[in-house]
Amino acid sequence: MNKKDIIQFFNTLPNYNSQEFSLKITQEILTSSTDVETLVNLLKEILDEYKNKDNEIINNKKLAFAACYALIVLYRRYDEQFKIKKLTDDFNSLFEDIPLFISEKSRICVEIGNNDDLKKALKLGKKSIELLEGKEHAGIFNNYSEIIALNLEKNTKKSEELLEEGYKYIFKAKDINKSYAKYYYTLARLQIIDEKYDDAEKNLKYAIEIEDMRMMDYSIRLSRYRNYLLVCRMMKLNKDTNQKMIMMNEEYSKVKMKLENSQLKMLEVLSLLVAIIGLMIAGISFSLKFKLNEAIILICVLNGLVFIDYGLLKSLCSANEKKELKYVILVGLLIITIGLLVGIFLKKIPCFSIKSYLLALYTIG
């Protein structure tokens, strides 16, 4: 392909605001058998002649912008982002009213800029859509969605509003051309951000399947799709692992709490048994010092007081078990009542000496 062939091809192109304009240039340039360096030099020559008004044949905006966009396509496919930036800066005043040109400027702001350039890129992307004035252009729609994806990937804070905007325009692009692989790739990037990993994996696999093998950058595109497929799978695995870890931690906390509660209850029961056994032993010693009816009453009162004290202290410490502890207190009162009834039955409720009361209090303690 020589300079004359390129100009003839550019003359057959539709208006630069149409979708066909960018598609035909992309297909022609990326399937050209001409050496890349030679092609770049020919396109630069056409642009320079337009800029300097050296040649009347190409002294029109459509031909000049076609050369400019063809260069952008070549640079982008070989990831020469700084060359695109220089090109768009040099020709900004000539093509600033063309939606496709503004769309490419917005992309480059994100590709080689920092976080301060992200807002500028989004504004330019939105401006490129506004310049379409209601016309449909899948490439520009995809470009804007891809800028949003890049923006969200570089920021840890997720913006639902921005994500919805990205979905809106990539679905528009896909509706226009359902067989273009890159649109599925852009959609998958948004879905990865949205943690819809199964849908993203499906779209990436489909993009790999339908990518055009005739394109000179076929292997580059394919490697990008596969890289994102790997990222998607890793992030899905990470999410599943985190969810399992959270579930395991929750289960561990529940089991730990149950074990602690069961241990505490066992200690409480053992303490109660020790207290009862102690009182029984003390009761035996009391029975040697008091008469039978006095010993029975004293032992019942002491054991009843142990149950009541246990119930009262537990009700103060645990709000959840108050209903159960009421029965413990009732058991204590019942034991004391039985002891008093025994005293009445024997017709003698003793009036203990001070020594007896001190001994009883000491035993309870």
Describe this structure in words.
With 365 residues, the protein is mainly α. The protein has helices at 3-11, 19-30, 36-52, 61-77, 81-90, 92-95, 99-112, 116-131, 138-154, 160-176, 181-193, 197-210, 218-289, 292-317, 322-345, 354-364. Helix 11 runs parallel beside helix 13 (218-289), helix 12 packs antiparallel against helix 13 and helix 13 runs antiparallel to helix 14. The model is unreliable at 349-355 and 357-365 (pLDDT under 50).
Give the total of beta strands.
Answer: 0
User: Helical amount among residues, as a percent range?
Assistant: over 70%
Mean pLDDT: 80
Distance between the termini: 107 Å
Task: Provide a brief overview of the structure.
This protein has 365 residues and is mainly α.
Can you tag this structure with a few keywords?
365 residues; mainly alpha; 80% helix; rod-shaped; disordered C terminus
SSE arrangement:
Blueprint: H1 3-11, H2 19-30, H3 36-52, H4 61-77, H5 81-90, H6 92-95, H7 99-112, H8 116-131, H9 138-154, H10 160-176, H11 181-193, H12 197-210, H13 218-289, H14 292-317, H15 322-345, H16 354-364
